[in-house]
Specification:
Strand content: 5-15%
Number of helices: 11
Structural class: mainly alpha
Largest sheet: 2 strands, antiparallel
Order of helices and strands: EEHHHHEHHHHHEHHEE
Strand order of the largest sheet: 1-2
Mean pLDDT: 83
Radius of gyration: 20 Å
Number of strands: 6
Distance between the termini: 18 Å
Length: 329
């Protein structure tokens, strides 16, 4: 059954009926004013504590596997990403179980959140948000492709995928899974998007070459990924958007991702223009061009989710934003 899910700020994302909706016969609505600040903070602390504990315990349990796979694959990035992903899955499951909540409704990483639109739409959103602006930068010469050592392109792409898949899921579980739902229910979608996006930017403070612009652009990427999660009502979609965004940079363009570079064969894409536009050594995601790409795709997501309606009148397009708090007739 399809429905339109309203939230406290008037955004309506199409999705399946949730247990949090009164119409579905289940619990509290997405914004729950009865949930006190102390309860929200306590549950967030429990979630963070469980995550940190899992990140300490899981490596100890998986140490033999890590040593073996590291010797075979020749890189620790894959095993580190897999380890972190398992830790976040365990932490989320423990927290959800502890507070007797629903995995489906608190994480949106469930079977009912799968589907053609969440999967392909999420991947396309992340892909085009960075591929289009980067392509334009290459066209105008602000990014330049230079030769690199020969190798197997498919092997390089496979390595990039193996590194990026668990890393993206780890970050989505940490910020736009249980914590996002908890904040949204208690304080509304605006606060949930703002707090998780700022946290997303701050988590990258220790990456190589970090500066104020890169942190700001990573925070904007957090807003973009939150909109993907809301528009498709699916953490699968946010995960694939995150993966597609990073995969284009690392496996297609052969650029650093958030300041971290993994050697790729045949060619590299380097900055040949101002860092504020191209992202410089951090990678294209830290440039203004990437910001424009994310804003453009975010607008399309808003149209798709019916947060904004475009009316064509002759050769004019009138954009009608839905007023906050208004329900569709």
């Amino acid at each position: 059954m399809r429905t339109t899910r309203p939230d406290a700020d008037g955004l309506h994302a199409p999705g399946r009926v949730s247990a949090y909706e009164p119409d579905a016969g289940g619990g509290a609505p997405p914004s729950d004013p009865t949930m006190g600040n102390v309860v929200v903070v306590a549950r967030l602390i429990a979630f963070v504590g469980a995550s940190l504990l899992a990140l300490a315990v899981v490596p100890a349990l998986l140490y033999p596997f890590i040593r073996f796979s590291g010797s075979v694959v020749g890189t620790r990035l894959i095993t580190f990403g897999a380890m972190s992903c398992v830790a976040m899955l365990v932490a989320t499951a423990v927290t959800v179980r502890l507070f007797r909540e629903s995995w489906r409704d608190t994480t949106r990483l469930s079977v009912d959140a799968l589907g053609r639109w969440p999967l392909f739409g999420g991947l396309a959103a992340g892909w085009f948000a960075i591929a289009v602006p980067a392509g334009l930068l290459i066209w105008i010469g602000a990014l330049r492709i230079v030769p690199a050592e020969a190798g197997d392109w498919w092997a390089g792409a496979g390595l990039a995928l193996a590194i990026l898949m668990p890393a993206a899921l780890t970050e989505e579980l940490a910020l736009r899974g249980y914590a996002f739902t908890l904040l949204r229910r208690a304080w509304g979608v605006t606060m949930a998007v703002a707090l998780t996006s700022v946290a997303f930017g701050l988590l990258h403070l220790f990456n190589p070459g970090v500066n104020a612009q890169s942190v700001a652009l990573v925070s904007l990427a957090g807003v973009f990924l939150a909109l993907v999660r809301l528009a498709f009502d699916s953490l699968w979609a946010a995960w694939l958007a995150h993966l597609g965004y990073n995969f284009v940079q690392l496996a297609v363009l052969h650029t650093p991702v958030s300041g971290l570079a993994v050697p790729q064969p045949f060619y590299r894409t380097i900055s040949n223009g101002p860092a504020w536009l191209t992202g410089g050594a951090w990678g294209p995601e830290a440039g203004v061009a990437a910001a424009i790409g994310m804003l453009g795709v975010s607008f399309l997501l808003a149209v798709r989710a019916r947060w904004v309606t475009v009316h064509r009148r002759g050769w004019r397009f009138d954009i009608s934003w839905r007023p906050p708090g208004r329900r569709e007739p």
